[in-house]
Amino acid sequence: MLVDSFGRTATDLRVSLTDRCNLRCSYCMPPEGLEWLPKPELLTDDEVVRLVRIGVERLGVTEVRFTGGEPLLRRGLPDLVRRTVELEPRPRVSLTTNGIGLARLAGPLADAGLDRVNVSLDTLDRETFKRLAHRDRLPDVLAGLAAAREAGLRPVKVNAVLMRGVNDHEAVPLLRWCLERGYRLRFIEQMPLDAQHGWSRTDMITADEILARLGEVFALTPADADVRGSAPAESFLVDGGPETVGVIGSVTRPFCGACDRVRLTADGQVRNCLFATEESNLRDALRDGASDDDLADRWRAAVSRKRAGHGIDDPAFLQPARPMSAIGG
Ligand code: SAM
Ligand code: SF4
């Protein structure tokens, strides 16, 4: 098992399949994009499957989430999903995507065995989308969402990040829109993980603010006060339920004490935390001929060094060198 020195066990593996993206969300990367990882540095499909297999067979991983960058840009994604669901014991397999291309891929992904999908959608307004993501792709995202629902990838979850003065007036419209379509909306507090280091605590829209805005229109009651467990989203029944809305207060309501996540970057580095400042290079070990046992040992050692929390409030906090798009959110 992947146990750290505070007794937490990592069972939820986030695998980044690429650091590239077809959007430029301003809380994530600059409009001009970033210097992408060179292809030879990326894990091949076989390398990804081998490491995921070690996680599943030897280290107690039960959940695999493919992310990025934009994971739909990775060629052969349905095949990777199929090879992952064939592992024993079968992990649950999900995807976090910006939705562009999902209109075409939702069916093949569902056929390959994908269990669930999270689609990021921060605004319903085309102009705001262009301003926030620097691309005119809102219709593609909406088509992708609809296709995911049609393909039976339910519940379709929607992730939204609110930015002050950009889309923070859309909390209520976004929730209403999602409720009408049966999508499960979760708001995520903006974290200091953008490549351009533009995050500021005072600009951030907090979980409290989001709840206050929603509370002006909807009656919200805690849905799972006792069973939050390692789930980062605090969930609220909307107008008595059964529909819910989630709020992920990563900064102001951290859930580090119950964290069960571990990450593998597209270039084969294990990260024990989104905010980790050190990584463990499984790719080079693998390419140097390491055995499954050896790779598993290295992975265990990497997780054992996980810190107690992200420390964003600590004056000594250092933003990790890798931006979110290269870590895998
Ligand atoms: N490209 C895909 C997408 O946007 O869903 C997958 C990768 S993206 C890094 C994963 C999630 O992280 C998205 O829901 C995105 O909104 C969120 N995200 C990116 N940068 C963030 C930040 N600085 N703070 C909070 N969430 C962020
Ligand atoms: Fe791309 Fe996702 Fe980052 Fe937006 S949040 S720029 S869609 S990786």
Automatic annotation (TrEMBL):
It is an enzyme of class 4 (lyase). GO terms for molecular function: 4 iron, 4 sulfur cluster binding; cyclic pyranopterin monophosphate synthase activity; GTP 3',8'-cyclase activity; GTP binding; metal ion binding; S-adenosyl-L-methionine binding. SMART domains: Elp3 (SM00729). [4Fe-4S] cluster 2 binds at C256, C259, C273. Pathway: Cofactor biosynthesis; molybdopterin biosynthesis. It catalyses: GTP + AH2 + S-adenosyl-L-methionine = (8S)-3',8-cyclo-7,8-dihydroguanosine 5'-triphosphate + 5'-deoxyadenosine + L-methionine + A + H(+). Keywords: 4Fe-4S, GTP-binding, Iron, Iron-sulfur, Lyase, Metal-binding, Molybdenum cofactor biosynthesis, Nucleotide-binding, S-adenosyl-L-methionine. Its EC number is 4.1.99.22. Monomer and homodimer. PANTHER family: MOLYBDENUM COFACTOR BIOSYNTHESIS PROTEIN 1, MOLYBDOPTERIN COFACTOR SYNTHESIS PROTEIN A. This is GTP 3',8-cyclase. It comes from Actinomadura harenae.
